[in-house]
Amino acid sequence: MTKFKNILAIALLFVLGLPVSAQTDNPLVQQIAKVLKDHQAGKNTDDFVKDQVKNFVKLHKKDANAIAGLAQAYYDIKDTANAKNYAELAISKNKNCGDAYCILGDIAALQSNDGGDAAMWYQNAQTMDPTNPKGYIRYAAVYRVRSPKEAVNALENLRKVNPSYPVDAEAGNIYYNAGRFKEALENFNKVKDLDKLEKNYLFEYTGAAYFAGDYNKSLEIAEYGLKKFPNEPNFNRMGMYDNLINKNYEQAETYGKALLSSNDSVISAMDLQNMGHVYNGLKDYQKAVEYFKKSLDKDSTVNDVRQYLYKAYSDIGDIDDAISIYKEYVNHKEAKSNADLSELASIYTTTAAKTEDAAKKDQYLAEADSIWAQYIKDYPQVAEYGMYMRAKVNENRDPDYTKGTAKPYWEDLEKAVLSHSEKGANDNAYLSAVYYYLGAYYYTAGKKEEGDVNWKKLLEVDPNNATAKKVLGVQ
After folding, report:
1. How confident is the prediction along the chain (475 residues), in pLDDT tens digits per residue?
2. What is the pLDDT of residue 269?
3. Are 107 and 84 in contact (CB under 8 A)?
4. Which of 68, 193, 409, 451 has minimal Cβ neighbours within 10 Å of its Cβ?
5. What is the rounded CA–CA span in Å between residue 110 and residue 84?
6. What DSSP letter does each residue of 384-425 carry, written as one string?
7. CA–CA separation, 62 vs 429, rounded Å?
8. Helix 98-111 and helix 64-76: axis angle, to 10°?
């Protein structure tokens, strides 16, 4: 029961957010609503309001809908006590006044986490005023989280008594807000006259199609929305997203530019990020960098953007900035892994291989070496892989084997492997690399005896090694 109440409490957030349809067709209701709002703003006196309300009630003593309009006006200024009093007065004058029951349901939704009371009043509205859509819609809103199907069933009951009401659009809205986008799309697709859809429903339609994977339909509705509401940011946004996912980058850029011409307050970090992806698709990597940076400026918590920015920097050959932003990416990760350090070291190694300047090349390799040292320390369970990679990096720092830069690291790996109580799957591969390097190093240094010891060890773990056989004269 508690779980049920919690679900209904969440659903009430939707009820309270529904647009209110007060009796605004009655100019006297509009007038009394303005009197109440002005009083709330301190523009008139208590006595003046009291007299105006008294005269309004006297004038409409037989009009329950007008009294319900007064109750709604009080509800709109959050005076629930008077809203309740006048809603009950409206029902006393006409027990079939559906709007009054809905107001009592709205008050119950405000005052309690238990959605049962609100649902009861909305059911009363359906029973007593069956052609009034508000009772059905508000009842459906209560159940849209707990049971979207039950909510839609309530709307189907509305269709029976009021065939002209846009039930399919309301059903689409319910499923959309429940995150059930396929069902939302199915219901929106049933709407025969899109001109009757309000702007927010058109946006939900294009969004439902997008999240359901029907990007062509999403784009179709976005384009329709722009014809009806030119320059509306939400429709330009969906136009960009749909074209981006379909890899229509030039069209995506057109919609993206239109979106970004909107007021900055409606532009999100995600919009800027996606504009970066658009320019990546257009291979305009400088522009991609620009928009990924703007996205981070707007919201620095979305760490994946740093990875996208790293790739864009790499694509324009800005290696130093690429490395810098990748470091930021790793540092901002909540759960770092050995793969992060491995990738960072690989970036330095790859960059070194492309660098002709000897000093700069060695600087990059020295950075890679320090990262592998950290890897060995931080991840002892895979330390031998780190030892192997660190030795290879230092081999690249001494490609002629004249300085022995890599020698201590290969020797560390040998000790680690030989200390195993049980042979590991990679032991032979690691030892082969160790003995090959040491054999070559001693051979280059003119220390044939030490070299031959290692070439022989190499043949023990790799009997078919051609280089060791050739050096040792073994057939």
Report:
1. 333 233 333 333 333 344 444 344 688 899 999 999 999 999 999 999 999 999 999 999 999 999 999 999 999 999 999 999 999 999 999 999 999 999 999 999 888 765 788 889 999 999 999 999 999 988 888 887 778 888 888 888 989 988 888 899 989 998 898 899 999 999 999 999 999 899 999 999 999 999 999 999 999 999 999 999 998 999 999 999 999 999 999 999 999 999 999 888 899 999 999 999 999 999 999 999 999 999 999 999 999 999 999 999 999 989 889 999 999 999 999 888 999 999 999 999 999 999 999 999 999 999 999 999 999 999 999 999 999 999 999 999 999 999 999 999 999 999 999 999 999 999 999 999 999 999 999 999 999 999 999 999 999 999 999 999 999 998 7
2. 96
3. yes
4. 193
5. 12
6. HHHHHHHHHHHHHHSTTSSS-TTHHHHHHHHHHHHT-SS--T
7. 96
8. 20
Rounded to an integer, what distance in angstroms lies between the CA atom of residue 17 and that of residue 266? 20
Which pair of structure tokens corresponds to residue 475? 């057939």
129 contacts: CB under 8 Å, gap ≥ 6: 96, 97, 98, 99, 101, 135
Cα separation values, 265 from 105, 133, 262, 301, 402, Å:
35, 35, 8, 18, 62
Sequence-distant (≥ 6) Cβ neighbours of residue 137 within 8 angstroms: 18, 155, 158, 170
Cα angle for residues 256, 259, 262 (degrees, 5° grid): 150
Cα 306 to chain centroid, rounded: 16
pTM over 0.85: no
Q: Determine the Cα–Cα distance for residues 227 and 235; give it in Å rounded to an integer.
A: 10
Let me know: does 11 contact 146? Beta carbons within 8 Å.
yes
Phi-psi region of 422 (alpha: psi -120 to 50; beta: other; left: phi over 0): beta
The C-alpha atoms of residue 139 and residue 455 are separated, in whole angstroms, by 83
Neighbours of 37 (CB within 10 A): 13
Best CA proximity match to 200, nearest among 169, 175, 227 = 169
CB-CB contact of 134 with 21 (8 Å):
yes
Query: Three-class SS of residue 363?
Result: helix
Distance CA 338, CA 393 (A): 17
Q: How far apart are CA 433 and CA 410, in angstroms?
A: 8
Cα torsion through 270, 275, 278, 283, rounded to 10: -120
- The stretches of 112-245 forming alpha helices (DSSP H) are 115-128, 133-143, 148-161, 167-177, 181-188, 199-211, 215-228, 233-245
